[in-house]
């Protein structure tokens, strides 16, 4: 990164780390060095940093909690992390929160404020921005149902406030994917603290029973192709649990997850994904679409 660019980002209120390995920022612990990882300390520094990068003609990617991405061995671009954008406020039954707040922290705040609705996301890793981008869901609920409005930047980095009726949410998709998400207002309902806490604990226990939470992964590898097609069960029925390519392995606990056995690369994950896709297609005629995002080497603006 050129010194002038580094200085501009720094003066705009960002920490900048050159050549950082992305593996330390992803839950699957995969990813080689990026040109730089930029950490805006405020939302206005976030906006400024993107303008600076755009003007400099630098390609970049936004990174939230890194729980749904698998970066390559070398990322020839800049990563802008939202991890310090964690402000929030609650007013009556609404919470307004910045994109980088972790879902874990947000849920703890909701318990304290006696606001109910998002209990089903208990245990979801990652940030609010990532959850909105993916329309994260679990146990029959989706975050999109609780959105009142979202503040975003469009392609030209113009600020926009989108009301819920201007946003499309569907299974693991939101039309917010064409924007940079800055902050959101979620509408919840009042409920007793103890009731919310108990429900969150129940959901957490269910996750613990089913998912390999003690090993690095990026969550469910594939989207469910249709309501009645359970990907994990299908992969299990094909006898693929434990199948390994390089350091990537189909979890023996939940066949819908690929875990990193220590030295997995993006290529290992990609090959394992293709292997599963091929076998599932041969057996069931169903094409599985990855839910995890395999980042390319660079060239994102
Ligand atoms: C153990 C485990 C369990 C999981 N369980 C679930 C589950 O039950 N349900 C579910 O839906 N998912 C689940 N996931 C997947 C993942 O946690 C979710 O998709 C999560 O919402 C991603 O958030 P993140 O902040 O980590 O996003 P990241 O992985 O950082 O990014 C995901 C995508 O969002 C984009 N993005 C992130 N923030 C912004 C922003 N502010 N503006 C614009 N783009 C942005 C990134 O560029 C990237 O394309 C699980 C993952 C793991 C590891």
From TrEMBL:
HAMAP family: MurB. Keywords: Cell cycle, Cell division, Cell shape, Cell wall biogenesis/degradation, Cytoplasm, FAD, Flavoprotein, NADP, Oxidoreductase, Peptidoglycan synthesis. InterPro entries: FAD-bd_PCMH, FAD-bd_PCMH-like_sf, FAD-bd_PCMH_sub1, FAD-bd_PCMH_sub2, MurB, MurB_C, MurB_C_sf, Oxid_FAD_bind_N. Residues 30-191 form the FAD-binding PCMH-type domain. It comes from the Bacteria. GO terms for biological process: cell division; cell wall organization; peptidoglycan biosynthetic process; regulation of cell shape. This is UDP-N-acetylenolpyruvoylglucosamine reductase. NCBIfam families: murB (TIGR00179), PRK13905.1 (NF010480). The gene is murB. Cell wall formation. It is an enzyme of class 1 (oxidoreductase). The lineage of its organism: Bacteria, Thermotogati, Thermotogota, Thermotogae, Kosmotogales. The keyword Oxidoreductase applies. It comes from Kosmotoga pacifica. It is found in: Cytoplasm. GO terms for molecular function: FAD binding; UDP-N-acetylmuramate dehydrogenase activity. Gene3D superfamilies: 3.30.465.10, UDP-N-acetylenolpyruvoylglucosamine reductase, C-terminal domain, Uridine Diphospho-n-acetylenolpyruvylglucosamine Reductase, domain 2. Its EC number is 1.3.1.98. Pathway: Cell wall biogenesis; peptidoglycan biosynthesis. GO terms for cellular component: cytosol. Its cofactor is FAD. Belongs to the MurB family. The active site is at 172, 220 (proton donor), 291. It catalyses: UDP-N-acetyl-alpha-D-muramate + NADP(+) = UDP-N-acetyl-3-O-(1-carboxyvinyl)-alpha-D-glucosamine + NADPH + H(+).
């Amino acid at each position: 990164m050129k010194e002038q660019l580094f200085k501009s980002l720094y003066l705009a209120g960002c920490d900048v780390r050159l050549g950082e390995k992305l593996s330390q920022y992803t839950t699957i612990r995969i990813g080689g060095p990026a040109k730089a990882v930029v950490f805006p300390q405020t939302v206005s520094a976030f906006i400024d940093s993107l303008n600076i990068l755009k003007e400099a003609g630098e390609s970049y990617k936004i990174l939230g909690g890194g729980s749904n991405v698998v970066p390559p061995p070398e990322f020839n671009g800049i990563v802008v992390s939202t991890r310090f954008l964690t402000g929030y406020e609650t007013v009556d039954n609404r919470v307004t929160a910045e994109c980088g707040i972790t879902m874990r922290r947000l849920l703890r705040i909701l318990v304290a404020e006696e606001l109910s609705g998002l209990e089903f996301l208990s245990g979801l890793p990652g940030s609010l921005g990532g959850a909105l981008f993916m329309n994260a869901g679990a146990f029959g609920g989706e975050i999109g149902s609780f959105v009142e409005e979202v503040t975003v930047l469009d392609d030209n980095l113009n600020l926009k406030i989108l009301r819920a009726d201007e946003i499309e949410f569907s299974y693991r998709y939101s039309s917010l994917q064409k924007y940079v998400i800055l902050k959101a207002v979620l509408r919840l309902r009042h409920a007793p603290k103890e009731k919310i806490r108990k429900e969150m604990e129940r959901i957490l226990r269910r996750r613990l029973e089913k998912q390999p939470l003690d090993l690095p992964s990026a969550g469910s590898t594939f989207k469910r192709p249709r309501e009645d097609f359970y990907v994990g069960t299908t992969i299990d029925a094909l006898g693929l649990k434990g199948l390994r390519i390089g350091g990537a392995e189909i979890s023996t606990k939940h066949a819908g997850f690929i875990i990193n056995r220590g030295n997995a690369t993006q290529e290992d994950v990609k090959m394992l994904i293709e292997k599963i896709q091929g076998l599932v297609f041969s057996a069931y005629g169903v094409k599985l679409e990855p839910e995890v995002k395999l980042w390319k080497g660079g060239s994102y603006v």
